[in-house]
Design a protein that fits this description.
Layout lengths: L1 H6 L2 H6 L8 H9 L18 H4 L2 H20 L9 H10 L4 H28 L8 H22 L5 H15 L22 H6 L6 H32 L8
């Protein structure tokens, strides 16, 4: 009975678009709503594909992520995530590598543009009511993508290993140390037995201060874990757009 009520809830219907029963209708839906078998929606409202409705903000965000991936991979050839060489590698990249300054600046400005475009995209979705049922699940996925985008910018900020990066991450991780329950300096940390060597700040830095451990951890997060999570969530995001009937239309 409880499972039946769960399946009839708005939360369940926002995640699972149709039942799993083996019926002719569900077999047809499995084909027409599958992004690999049937790329485009069965039908799309004309107003939904007008430029002035979406401004291509989602597609432009994807373009910025692709630019970030390509330039980031190229930058990895000239960068070593250790305190002795990180800053030196940045300077050598700027002044000795052919088009090195252009490559680094493209990566940097595409990152800024990606953050701005994600926020504008979510603002557009909110103002057009595109987060409402049955699209609320995809809205949650979009919020997670926003968080990952901000974390990508935050973790990448430390990699040049200059004074600006060092102190910015010091301030940022101090804020993590003041997080309720999870930070050593935050309220209610005694309830979970949190101390300076097991709190959220220590998890991020691998130490009590910004140093070599923090640089390596931020490098792994920035270049491996967060991009992989972003790719997975973007695939889910695009799949849900397809499953929900294409680009959201005006109400």
């Amino acid at each position: 009975m409880k499972f039946k009520k769960l399946r009839e809830s708005a939360l369940w219907r926002s995640v699972f678009r149709h039942s799993l029963a083996d019926t002719p209708r569900n077999r047809a839906l499995a084909v027409t709503s599958n992004i690999f078998l049937h790329v485009h929606p069965v039908q799309t409202k004309a107003d939904a594909v007008k430029f002035r409705f979406t401004f291509c903000l989602g597609g432009l965000t994807l373009l910025m992520f692709i630019i970030e991936t390509v330039t980031g991979v190229l930058l990895m050839f000239y960068y070593r995530p250790v305190t002795e060489y990180a800053y030196l590698d940045m300077k050598l990249l700027e002044h000795t590598v052919l088009f090195g300054m252009f490559l680094r600046n493209m990566h940097r400005w595409a990152a800024h543009a990606m953050v701005i475009l994600v926020m504008l995209h979510m603002l557009r979705v909110f103002l057009t009511g595109s987060y409402k049922p049955p699209r609320e699940f995809n809205w949650v996925v979009g919020v997670l993508l926003l968080v990952i985008t901000l974390l990508l910018s935050f973790t990448g900020y430390l990699l040049p290993w200059d004074q600006l990066a060092f102190w910015a991450i010091t301030v940022g991780t101090k804020m993590a140390g003041a997080t309720p329950f999870l930070g050593n300096e935050g309220p209610f940390h005694q309830l979970l037995g949190i101390h300076p060597y097991n709190d959220l700040q220590y998890l991020l830095l691998g130490d009590s201060v910004v140093g070599g451990n923090a640089l390596l951890r931020f490098y792994v997060l920035h270049c491996v874990l967060l991009p992989l999570a972003c790719v997975v969530l973007m695939a889910v995001h695009f799949w849900r757009i397809r499953k929900d009937g294409g680009i959201s239309r005006p109400l």
